[in-house]
Amino acid sequence: MADTGARTPLTLSVVVPAFDEGDAIEPCLTRLAAQTVPPSRIIVVDNGSRDDTVARVRRFADRSPVPVDVLSEPTKGTVHARTRGYDAVTSDLIGRIDVDTHVEPDWAARIVDFFTDHGETYSAASGFCVAYDLPFQDRFARVHRSLSESAQTLLDAGGDIDNGRLFGSNMALSRAAWRDVRADLEDSTAKFEDLDLSLTLTEHGHRIALVPFLSAPISGRRYLTPIRHYVRYALREMTTYDRHGLPAEKRKAWVRLATVTMPFYLVMWIPFRAYDPERGSFSMRRLARSVVGARRLGWT
C-alpha cells in the first residue's frame, strides 16, 4: 500500500442498500467491519424490508467496532436507497456495495490508498467481481488477476486506467463528485443506476478508474432468476443509454445482449441451477428443486 506521508488520511463511508436481506446482511457487514483499514462508517439503507433485516443490522451495530447507521428509504428501488445513503455521507469518499457482496479484507484500504494517490485524476473507481456461489469462476478470477497486473504496471508507469463504467457491487467515488452530479441524476428504476451515474460523471468531466486488485466477490443469484425477469433487467442498459442520448452505445448494448449476455444466460441455465456452492458439486436433485421452487413462486 502507498505511503501517504504527512497527508491527512481520507475518510471512507460505505453505503449498503438493503431490501429483505435478513439472511445476507450480517455476513456482508462482518466483512466490512473486519477490514484491515476499517471504514469510518457503514450506512445501511433499508428499502422497506418486510423481514428482520433492520433488526439484524441493529443487533450487529451494537457490537460492531465500526459505527453502523440504519436509514430508511420507503420509495422502492435501489436507486432511491442509494441516493438516500450517498446524501447522508459526510466522509471524503463514498464506497458502495450490495448486500450480497463479500469484500476482500483489504478492500477499503485499496480504495483509500488509490484516491490518496490518484484522487486528483480520478473521481470514481470500480474493481473486479466474481461469483462466490456459481461454478466455473476460477477462469474469470485468473482473467481479472491478469487485468489487474496489467493495470498496475500501467499505473506505475504513469499511464491511464480509465474504465468509464462503475459497477454498483464494487465501487467508490468522492463525495465532491457526488455533490457535483447529484442534481442531474434521474431517480428512475427503469435505468441501471450505476451506469446512469457513470455517464453523468463523465458528462461532468469526471474520470472513472478500474482499480487493480480491488476485489469484491458477489452472489450470482441474478442468473437464477426467470428468463423474462432477466431480460427485463438487462434492457435497463438500453434505456440508460437512450436517456443519455447515446444511440451508438445503445446499439452496442443490443449487440452484447444478443451475442454475449443472453447466450451466456441460456448456456449456463442448467449448470448454474444444478450447482451446490456449499459442496462445490452438481446435483440433479438441486436442479429439480430449483425448477419446482420457481414454479411454486410463479416464475415459470
UniProtKB/TrEMBL annotation:
Domain Glycosyltransferase 2-like: 13-176
Superkingdom of source: Bacteria
Keywords on record: Cell membrane, Glycosyltransferase, Membrane, Transferase
Protein name per the record: 4,4'-diaponeurosporenoate glycosyltransferase
InterPro entries, alphabetized: Glyco_trans_2-like, Nucleotide-diphossugar_trans
Family: Belongs to the glycosyltransferase 2 family. CrtQ subfamily.
Subcellular localization: Cell membrane
Pathway note: Carotenoid biosynthesis; staphyloxanthin biosynthesis; staphyloxanthin from farnesyl diphosphate: step 4/5
Primary location group: membrane
UniProt function note: Catalyzes the glycosylation of 4,4'-diaponeurosporenoate, i.e. the esterification of glucose at the C1'' position with the carboxyl group of 4,4'-diaponeurosporenic acid, to form glycosyl-4,4'-diaponeurosporenoate. This is a step in the biosynthesis of staphyloxanthin, an orange pigment present in most staphylococci strains.
Any Pfam family the entry gives: Glycos_transf_2
